[in-house]
Amino acid sequence: LARVLCIANQKGGVGKTTTAVNLADALAKSDRRTLLVDLDPQCNATSALGAKAVDHHPLLMDEPLSDLQVGIYPDTLAVLPGSRNIDDVQRLAASDETDRRHLLSRLATTHATFDTVVIDCPPSLGRLTQTALMASTEVLMPIQCEFFAMEGLTQMIEVIRDVMHSETSQLDFGGILLTMYDPTLELTLEVDAEVRDFFGEVVFETVIPRDINAAEAPSHGQSVLEYAPRCRATRAYIELCMEVLERDDES
Amino acid sequence: LARVLCIANQKGGVGKTTTAVNLADALAKSDRRTLLVDLDPQCNATSALGAKAVDHHPLLMDEPLSDLQVGIYPDTLAVLPGSRNIDDVQRLAASDETDRRHLLSRLATTHATFDTVVIDCPPSLGRLTQTALMASTEVLMPIQCEFFAMEGLTQMIEVIRDVMHSETSQLDFGGILLTMYDPTLELTLEVDAEVRDFFGEVVFETVIPRDINAAEAPSHGQSVLEYAPRCRATRAYIELCMEVLERDDES
Ligand SMILES: Nc1ncnc2c1ncn2[C@@H]1O[C@H](COP(=O)(O)OP(=O)(O)OP(=O)(O)O)[C@@H](O)[C@H]1O
Ligand SMILES: Nc1ncnc2c1ncn2[C@@H]1O[C@H](COP(=O)(O)OP(=O)(O)OP(=O)(O)O)[C@@H](O)[C@H]1O
Ligand SMILES: [Mg+2]
Ligand SMILES: [Mg+2]
Prior knowledge:
Strand content of chain A: 15-25%
Structural class of chain A: alpha/beta
Order of helices and strands of chain A: EHEHHEEHHEHEHHEHHHH
Oligomer: homodimer
Radius of gyration of chain A: 17 Å
Bound molecules: adenosine-5'-triphosphate, magnesium ion
Shape of chain A: globular
Strand order of the largest sheet of chain A: 3-4-2-5-1-6-7
């Protein structure tokens, strides 16, 4: 069975896409056959790796996913591109019972050919994110160390709990990741302490530092690991990947 | 007729709430009777001014808005709080025909008592943001000067155009605001040049600098104008307010 990591947080701009893309790349470089799925109508994860958004979302079509995915590295990394088609966006967002079953069965076909699947979600707690959580084995929540970060957390945790308690779910809480971390700012240290007090071990030891290379890499269609192999964000995402792989061995 | 400014962008974390709160405060300080409306399920605009999220969203209730708003300064600034109630959130997001008409007529009641209304939207292009655009006289789009900022812009512009062309709309394009601006970063200067080339005069001359005071102020329940009256973000939001008021005189 593949590990399916859902990268989700309703708060916007916290580093969901940056984490999804760079973690997927680090997993591929650790020889895990990895698929990055773009569920965000902005299609940022698709273009961050140099792929193009498509006219119809692959999860709403009938062809096999293997015909619709875009290879990034032969054998180890592929992207299931997103779509900006307004009808598809609304259909995915509404995720009614029929579409939800279809999406879940489409995503289940990935287990046969991939070791890990990473799903990038839009900044929302709506039905599409809930469907993505239902398809996942674990949820990873990026949090920026700022005041508003703590506000929406309880709502998010409630939705995750609801999905974990539903019959068909196989969802575990994968972890909380602190992003755009700047240890010189008082606010960063305050939120770090509050989050670790509240969530304890669930919070990854690895934090992702604020590093302009992470923001520049997507404009070159590359992961930060490819764009700036020795920068601080690259080292942090490699460390995160090792922590994610260790957590697998333990459970 | 009141001016109704819709602060919208589907990209997350670009400074929508920070702009809505601080522009509303600056307008109130310029003696415009101002109402800040929180349409985001995270209720960040509500707590940024020290108010509390409520159990039911005021726009979905029947009492007069004047009974449901929270006064920040007597006579010049009030906030219509948001709600995290999951049923209200889903009803607002779905914004079906009946609810949409109800929301629009509720928002129309604000014209009698306020000079300006500022609406903070969630990071989405869905029906709720479209309803907010329908209720507005102008849309103000904060953009962070980073690569992903340019990606979702065309979709956003299309939605705004659709609303502007519908019969009942009174929507103008208010302007594009560059936020978290750091002139020492190459990426900031590149995106600035690209946005101004493409949009010209529509882009406000005022840019909002990256300033930690803007991120700290909400944890004190204050606008940045109150929290740090002489900081760079405060000066920028006062300048923005003057530009917004000038644009009114011209049109
Ligand atoms: N470690 C980092 N250092 C510096 N900039 C970063 C870092 N991580 C992300 N960014 C930048 O911050 C912005 C927000 O990140 P990103 O788009 O990944 O967040 P998101 O949660 O996916 O946003 P959305 O809610 O819109 O989907 C982007 O412009 C990105 O390039
Ligand atoms: N000028 C600024 N300087 C420094 N930090 C800022 C500035 N403006 C906003 N921030 C911080 O950046 C983060 C994102 O801003 P904000 O929450 O206002 O964006 P948003 O677009 O409303 O996000 P969402 O899409 O989740 O609604 C917040 O933590 C905020 O405090
Ligand atoms: Mg994203
Ligand atoms: Mg906001």
